[in-house]
Design goal:
This protein is 12% helix and 46% strand. The protein has two helices and twelve strands; from the N terminus they run ββββββββββααββ. The strands form four sheets. It has a four-stranded mixed β-sheet with strand order 1-10-9-3, with no helix packed on it.
Amino acid sequence: FSADEKTPAFSAPLPALQLKAARGETGSVFFAVETASPFSALKITPLQLTCGKKSISAKVQKIQYADYIANDRGTLFTDILFDSFPGKKVKRQFAVWHVAVPRDAAPGVYKGKLQLQINGKQDRPIPVELRVYNFALPKFPAMRSAFSVKNGHISARFPDSRIRKQIYNTMVSRAAAFRFGPRLPGTDPRFKLDSKGKLHIDWSGFD
């Protein structure tokens, strides 16, 4: 989504920004604040979430402000997050609402608001909803993240061919050791479901 791209037409209004998460999970919602005239100051503040007599503190909520960054091909992405408004004069600012759901949170639908201040003036708040599921995530994940290993990106930053090769080989060996799924080496593990619906993963080609 480019910096000057027109906002898509709304297909249907939502009563609130909606998020669903398990206990112990951090969930996020990506949204935009847009005005008819450019603004140069924006502050979004989460308030306490409530569900009957139950509540989730504003202390486990966080707002971050997205900004554009160019990759090595000159393409812009909203790929950098700041803890405060970047300060540019804009008509539209993307932001992210994060909630780290406490492990002892009671299940249910919690409702609250994000206070909105534009150019120092209070504006209408943004209603939010968080559905907390009745289960908790494991304290330690069984799976690890994936990333991209690409010689072109490494070469752009390390002109020495010997160092480039060393970095590439190190990244690929770490991928094998920790079962990361690098996108570009061209070999993926094979996945198969048996007749009982159990998933089998064959790592032999990957290794």
